[in-house]
Every structure is written in C-alpha cells, then in structure tokens.
C-alpha cells in the first residue's frame, strides 16, 4: 500500500478510537449509609492559659534613611520615564 498517504491512516485510527470511547458502559454510583460515631468534642478543654511570650522591641536606626533614599531614586526614575515618553515620538 505504497500509494496511500499517512493522513488517511491517522484519520481512520482516530475514528476507531472515538467509536471505542462511545461504547463504554455507564458507571453505577452507589450511596453508602452513614455510620454512627461516638461523640468527640471539636475543641479540647483548656485547663490553664498558655503563658504569653515576652515581646522584644528591636530598633533599626537606618530604616528611615533607606526609605528616603529609595523614594528619591524612584522619583528620579519616574521623571526619566516621563521625559523619555514625551521626547520619543
């Protein structure tokens, strides 16, 4: 069968796969009866409150200067972008 093309072989094989997939029997779904269970409380009773961890305040002395420097650089970049948008046609 040298005269036949590859396309027709693929086409026929796809059609046979479609036919096979249509012949699948429908599945039967069964429902299970609920099983009674013993009562369990959702939250265990609390006997004593847990001690709170001590909060420590950490100081970062350079945060304000770094944020100011980042804001200045962001402003400069924004101005450059606006100027480039207006200059380029």
How would you summarize the topology of this molecule?
Layout: H1 6-22, H2 63-87
Question: What do you see in this structure?
Answer:
This protein is mostly helical. It has a domain at about 60-89. Helix content is about 45%, strand content about 0%. The chain has two helices and no strands. It has helices at about 5-20, 65-85. The longest helix has 25 residues, at about 65-85. The radius of gyration is 37 Å and the shape is flat.
Short description:
Helix content is 47%, strand content 0%. The protein has helices at 6-22, 63-87.
Order of helices and strands: HH
Strand content: under 5%
For the termini, the CA-CA separation is 63 Å
Q: Sheet with the most strands?
A: none
Q: Please, what is the average pLDDT?
A: 75
Number of strands: 0
Give the oligomer, counting copies of the same chain as homo and different chains as hetero: single chain
Helix content: 40-55%
| Separate helix tally | 2
Unreliable residue stretches: none
Classification by helices and strands: mainly alpha
Write down the Rg.
37 Å
The geometry reads as: flat
């Amino acid at each position: 069968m040298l005269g036949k093309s590859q396309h027709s072989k693929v086409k026929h094989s796809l059609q046979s796969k479609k036919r096979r997939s249509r012949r699948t029997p429908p599945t039967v779904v069964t429902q299970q009866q609920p099983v009674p269970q013993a009562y369990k409380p959702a939250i265990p009773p609390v006997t004593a409150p847990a001690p709170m961890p001590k909060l420590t305040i950490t100081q970062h002395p350079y945060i304000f200067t770094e944020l100011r420097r980042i804001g200045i650089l962001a402003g400069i970049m924004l101005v450059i972008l606006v100027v480039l948008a207006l200059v380029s046609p």
